[in-house]
Amino acid sequence: MNGPTTDRNTEIKAFLIAEGGVDIDERVLGRITTPASGPGAGLKSFFFRFNGHRVRLGVKHDSRFKATLEGEQVVIRDHSKEIVRGYLEDAIAHCPEQAFITVSEICIFDCSFCPVPLLGGSIKDQKDVETAISRILADPKLARNLRAIALTSGVRESPQREVELIAAIIRALREKYDLPIGVSVYPTPNSTQLLKDAGADEIKYNVETTDHQLFESMCPGLSLEFIIQALKDAVEIFGRNKVFSNILVGLGEDDDTIITGMEELIEIGVIPILRAVVEHPLRSKKGLRRPNAERLLRLARKERELLDRYGLRADEAKTMCAPCTGCDLMPHRDV
Ligand code: SF4
């Protein structure tokens, strides 16, 4: 197979994301990751690096793509046709190059696309997080590759209690480590200032969808208007290129809604992360439709255009999903 062009590599990544995973013999994989947060929580995956791109691939035995290990390389075929070859990449904690830790793997809210409330995961305290990071730093290979710390969390008791807990953990980490720290939580009236004062460098508040009707029906008890206001405040306090928000693609919204929503966020200085929905076995798939590669490419290219128009740079991010790029087509890195 000839080396694919750069555009072709982006298309390959889009096809892999759209499919959601590859059929692979799990025994050939080193560290399989099982994310504890977000729509793909609880599903097995691994990281694949090829031609300057990174993608997180689910282990999906009914996938159209089959991956095999050939020497050091992983080769992915579509039926019998080779489409790409690359390498496995180890995660440090959740993803490569970051200690990305989910503090509360539970949630009192019940967004209909998110499996976290149904997984009954563990909860960590400050000591658990500090221990996890000390263990990473005690391993020379992991320590050498560690570029950032990131924390995310469901809500164990109340959004305010959660933010206070996370702020205390960040304060402790800030005193010990000279690494960029990112944080992703549900906002509260003073969360932005609290987390900034604690030492966070970047922040993410997820709108999940910018379709107001869909948001109301899918995220009972949460407020889209409040999240958008919190994002505006976050840009004031953290600055441009340091505030992020996930927009899920495939909840039933149309492209115009996503593009208008992206522009609203970009206009106020927020970098959207376009995330394909996961049709999770624990959640009803009603209304959900994982976007195809063409849709992902179209929306990512539009996002790149909007970011350029408003002078934002996704490749300046140091923490969380924008530098990782595993799950998304990231402007300025993939497109
Ligand atoms: S893109 Fe974000 S959610 Fe996906 S593996 Fe990377 S850090 Fe995790």
Could you explain how this protein is built, in words?
With 335 residues, the chain is of the alpha/beta class. The strands form two sheets. A seven-stranded mixed sheet has the order 7-8-9-10-11-12-13. The chain has a six-stranded mixed sheet with strand order 1-3-2-6-5-4. β4 (65-70) and β5 (73-78) form a beta hairpin. The longest helix has 18 residues, at 159-176. The chain has eleven helices and 13 strands. The model has no long low-confidence stretch (mean pLDDT 93). The protein has a domain at 6-89. Residues 38, 56, 94-95, 100, 320-321, 324, 326-328 line the site of iron/sulfur cluster. The site of iron/sulfur cluster has 11 residues, from β7 and α11.
Determine the mean pLDDT: 93
Helix content: 25-40%
Strand order of the largest sheet: 7-8-9-10-11-12-13
Between the first and last Cα atoms, what is the distance in angstroms?
A: 23 Å
The amount of beta strand, in percent, is 15-25%
Outline, from the CA principal axes? globular
Largest beta-sheet characterization: 7 strands, mixed
- Enumerate the distinct ligands: iron/sulfur cluster
Number of strands: 13
- Runs in which pLDDT lies below 50 for 5 or more consecutive residues are none
Q: What is the C-alpha radius of gyration, as a whole number of Å?
A: 19 Å
| Class of secondary structure makeup | alpha/beta
| Secondary-structure element series | HEEEEEEEEHHHEHEHEHHEHEHH
Provide a count of the helices: 11
